[in-house]
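Q: I'm a student working through a structural biology exercise. My instructor gave each of us a protein and asked us to get a predicted structure, then write a short paragraph describing it. Mine is GxxExxY protein. I'm not confident about reading structure output yet, so if you can add a plain explanation after the tokens, that would really help. Here is the sequence I was given:
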Amino acid sequence: MVPTQKSIDKLSYQIIGAAIEVHKHLGPGLLESVYHKCLAIELESREIKFNSELIIPIEYKGHIVDTQLRCDFLVENLIVVEIKSVSEIPPIHQAQIINYLNLLKAPKGILINFNVVNIFHHGQKTFINKYYELLDSE
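A: Happy to help. First, here is the predicted structure for GxxExxY protein. I'll explain a few features afterward.
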């Protein structure tokens, strides 16, 4: 199946729902690694395919540079999911997910902060790029 903006948006909704479920059971205030493991379990239980701790290749002037740069999740090879457990999301975390989107040529990204009272209203932000815009125009 060729991905469309609508199918990617539906998948985003499922991912955010999984994060809300994890947050509902654990609440805020734990380490990011705890939420990471629990979100992986929740995605698996929903039969959503993903790669965890995916190493992102960096190409520099024809060379592949081993940087050990990792994204938390790449879901269905379409959506980058970065999770945090911080009091506030600084701009560097937003820049990080935008860079991951572009390096992986993924059309959409979701930045989730578990250290909030309500993930849906205050704990998630989505990002799109040119790959998203090109989906329905091809």
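A: Here are two points you could use in your paragraph. The beta strands are 50-55, 58-60, 63-65, 70-75, 79-84, 108-113, 124-128. The chain is about 45% helix and 25% strand. It's a good idea to check both against the output above yourself.
Q: Great, thank you!
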